[in-house]
Amino acid sequence: MLARDLLYSSAKRLTLAGADAPRLDAELLLMHAWQCDRIELIDRSQQEVPDKIRQAFKALLERRLQREPLAYILGEKEFWSHRFIVTPDVLIPRPETEHLIEAMLKCFPSREQAYRFCDIGTGSGCIAVTLACEYPQAHVIATDISHAALEVARQNAASHGVTDRMDFLGGDMLSPLAGHSDLQDAIISNPPYVALAEMAELDRELAFEPRHALTDEGKGLHFLQQIVDDAPRLLKPGGYVILETGPCGLPSASDTLTLHENICDLAGHLRGAVYQRRP
């Protein structure tokens, strides 16, 4: 079968399966199976797909037809123009989370200072590793309750050459910081904030992602509020807490932490907030 015909028939099947971008998915899967880039795939569109490649592609396609996320099938996802290893042990990095990086750059415009940052619930490490890349003198702590997730984050740190300026700590929420005497310039997190009532309405792809990283099994505010309540004692005076959120809204500010600004996307939807510790 010619490559163009294989892509056409596969895209039709993906459309029927409910995939959002069926043609793109088919192309990316064939590029992965054939170990080629998009330009090479275009050049090969009139070629017969070798049987070995076609069989490999078919296996990948069957997984996508079951609505397994493309990132898990390919084993990687782009975030902030960097490629990150992803496995089913971690959430897939999303463009919405890049708003947190934008907020950090706004709060800390100087890139050359020796800041201390901490990413709570790091997952793939996309936030923590990106911060280490953006701030070459900073030290970044990445925490997660999942040791499998921390291993993925370590791999991503190594692939981006920032391991020497990072610590990876296992434990629940902010508890791993209990033994660290150094106060942080910023604590950042994309915690589980999907309300239990919303879980049944999510896309089928979300069923493949770690549930504990998506929802607090309540109204969505539990972990957000916990960070806001516990973070001030770990922050330098004037330090920031930067959080991602969703329809659940924002936690209440504490006595020592004030809401600095909301983070909204281009459509005006609330995506997070920046809190600041009082001096």
- The name of the CATH topology of the largest domain is Rossmann fold
Distance between the termini: 68 Å
Oligomer: single chain
| CATH H-tier superfamily of the largest domain | Vaccinia Virus protein VP39
Strand/helix succession:
HHHHHEEHEHEHEEHHEEE
Mean pLDDT: 96
CATH C-level of the largest domain: Alpha Beta
Query: What is the 3D form?
Result: elongated
**Helix-strand category:** alpha/beta
**What portion of the residues fall into strands of 2 or more residues?**
15-25%
Strand order of the largest sheet: 5-4-3-6-7-9-8
Please give a structural write-up.
With 279 residues, this protein is α/β, with parallel strands linked by helices. The protein folds into two domains: 3-66; 82-277, Rossmann fold. Helix content is 35%, strand content 20%. The strands form two sheets. It has a seven-stranded mixed β-sheet with strand order 5-4-3-6-7-9-8, with helices on both faces. Strands 1-2 form a two-stranded antiparallel ribbon. Helix 8 (147-159) links the parallel strand 4 (139-144) and strand 5. Helix 2 crosses helix 4 (51-65). The protein is elongated, with a radius of gyration of 21 Å. It starts with a helix and ends with a strand.
